[in-house]
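Researcher: We're reviewing a set of sequences before deciding which ones to prioritize for further study. For each one, I'd like a predicted 3D structure that I can look through quickly. This is ABC transporter permease. If possible, include the structure in token form so it fits the rest of the review sheet.
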Amino acid sequence: MKRFRSFLFLCMFAIILAACSDTGDSDTTASSDEGAGEGGTIKVGVLASLTGALESYGKQTQRGFELGLEYATEGTMEVEGKKIEVIWEDTETKPEVAVQKATKLLEDDGVDFLVGSSSSGDTLAVLPLAEEYEKIMIVEPAVADSITGSEFNEFIFRTARNSSQDAYAAAAAIAKEGVKIATFAPDYSFGWDGVSAFKTAAEKLGAEIVLEEFADPAATDFTSNIQKIVDAKPDYLFVVWAGANSPWQQISDMKLQEKGIKISTGAPDIIALQLMGPLVGMEGFSVYYHTLPNNEINDWMVEEHKKRYNNEVPDLFTPGGFSAAVAMVEALKKSGGDADGNTLIPLMEGMSFDTPKGTMTFREEDHQALQPMYSIRLETVEGVDYPVPVLIRELSPEETEPPVMN
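Model: Here's the predicted structure for ABC transporter permease, in token form for your review sheet.
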């Protein structure tokens, strides 16, 4: 009996050892798989104005981001063995809604990245959440300088150009010693930062800013604003604007150019270009128009966009969405699929990546993407029902590099 009990005890001990050994092997295998970064899903939460005044911008970003993911993953929608899942949220161009949607993405959906948004106001409201949750946020297409300036945190990387890059390109076109310039912009962060940056760049070139006029961003009547500009008697009016309610028709109706005031601005999206017929011959700058870049990635994007969207060409913010997707995929390739924000920061600082606009580089100091811009003239082109931005010359990333403001 004693021998039987001893035998039974030894058997049970052997079973326990085997079980422990199996558990240990399973844990080791799981840890190895996790370390290799294989399997699983990368979740991306994209904030955009999919309704409201900036709806067209949000949809351009959406199309570009989807095309960019396809291009960067060669159609697999995977990186380093992990599937990419994209969750879209409409901010309605309301900062409080943007915060609600971003919180939902981070807490309920458990996203690994944030991307967005169409409005600088929405984006500024969300920036602290990226830092709080330690998630990389790729800013596109919001341009306020403060995003990578006074409100910067290390989890923010921006593929969109900022207001100062616009300003340096714009000032190069019209500012010089003795020239008097008035500015006109919407009365919120996008407009304030745009005017401030332009003023700095223009005054460095010797120009004088004689009036800074701001209008309600939701306004449709700009008569009183434009009259103040006429009364200031500038040589040039430099306009910073975004949204469907543009002032171009009223600027034309009030005959500023006949009064000796030349107009200069950034070439906007196609909807706004359709209202700029009276400005044919104007020289300014462009962030993007589909015929300006000369590279294979842009050719691919234009061709695929036309195939999928009823022969429509990519618009102003389509390449930005594309670039944000490429930047994310390239960063994940560098990390072996690890989406941890703290791991990605040093890998993304100084990272260069190819986009429809050419090569972009995240500047180490403030994570602003340095990128090409375009000096253009608006011209009439046969078969096109709006003034077309025609290239004068490409402005290098070094020419439009903004100051570090963080």
